[in-house]
Amino acid sequence: MSEPKIDDSQIIRGKWTMRDPYGKTRFLSVRARAVLDLFRPFTLLAPFIVSSSIMVASLMHSGREIPSNWWITVGQASLTLAIVNAASNSLNQATDVEADKISKPYRPIPRGVLQADSAQSLAYILYLFALLRAVTINVWFGTFIFLIMLFTVTYSLPPRMKQYLFINQIWIAIPRGMLGILAAWSVFLRPGEHPFTATPLIIGGIATTYLIGGMAAKDITDEKADKLTGTRTLINTYGNKKTAIICFPFMFFPIALIPMFIGPNMLDSYLWPLTFFVLLSIFVCYLIWRGIESNTLENVQAWAIMYIQYIFFVLSFSLLTIFKDTLPF
């Protein structure tokens, strides 16, 4: 099959997140570059970095002897979570063609470089591969991967939770927050153990609540398209300013109240520096209020900073847990 041709009018020089990925095809074919764009590589950083750091932290938190091949297990499990995210991104673009024609016409399906059916089939292949890989690690990890898949599939396909106001944000936050963290925490469990202990549940709950608010940022650039295609979001229902006010408690208080969990020994005392992330939460809410589009990223600045904050919050939790015996507090 011949390569799809892209007119010069379609070629706009590149973005960090492959927003305009067809200007240069020196190392990859147009179609291969389009598939990469379908996966949205920037968004795959969060599940990979977050999950791998959580896995190492869970191993150190358990106090058990570290297995010699721990890094192989971490790499395989983290890649599995990233593949699930790539499958979700592919399925979402396959089912959002009409909206993307309005707000993101540079994406590969609206441009005609890929077909929606092909993207959907690719998503199913990735889901199947991830699930088969997950169950070989252990039963708990496989169970959480299945639940994450269930949430991401029903977000895009019937009952298509994406179209329901506020539920759509919860539906994204649960798999990327609680289920993702519990999945990572379960990787090194011994037979008979379970991941439902205070530390992963509280950190997962904080992450989920934060993401319920933070995920509103992704809807800013889609405001018009979502409204025209029947998807209700906080942004197209209340506007940027009211959305920022609504989201603020979800992004601020779970982190600000970390000392409340430390007091009754539900969290270890060395985790108190995580409360400093409330400053970034305030900044992200301010960016949602402003709704400024980025010149280098696919979405607005608030979306990028929200993702970065989430990555560094979990990474900081993991580093504090790994090096807890060397900390001066």
Describe the structure.
The structure is a single chain. The chain is an all-alpha fold and 329 residues long. It has one domain (14-317): Orthogonal Bundle (Farnesyl Diphosphate Synthase), CATH 1.10.600. It contains 14 helices and no strands. The longest helix has 26 residues, at 70-95. The chain is globular. The N and C termini lie far apart (63 Å).
Number of domains: 1
E-strand count = 0
What is the CATH architecture term?
Orthogonal Bundle
The gross shape turns out to be globular
Question: Which properties best describe this structure?
Answer:
329 residues; mainly alpha; Farnesyl Diphosphate Synthase; 64% helix; 0% strand
Give a short overview:
The protein is mainly α and 329 residues long.
What is the secondary structure topology, with strand pairs?
Layout: H1 30-39, H2 41-62, H3 70-95, H4 97-103, H5 108-111, H6 116-135, H7 139-156, H8 167-185, H9 198-214, H10 223-228, H11 234-256, H12 258-262, H13 278-290, H14 301-322
Helix pairs in contact: 2-3, 2-8, 2-14, 3-6, 3-7, 6-7, 7-8, 8-9, 9-11, 9-14, 11-13, 13-14
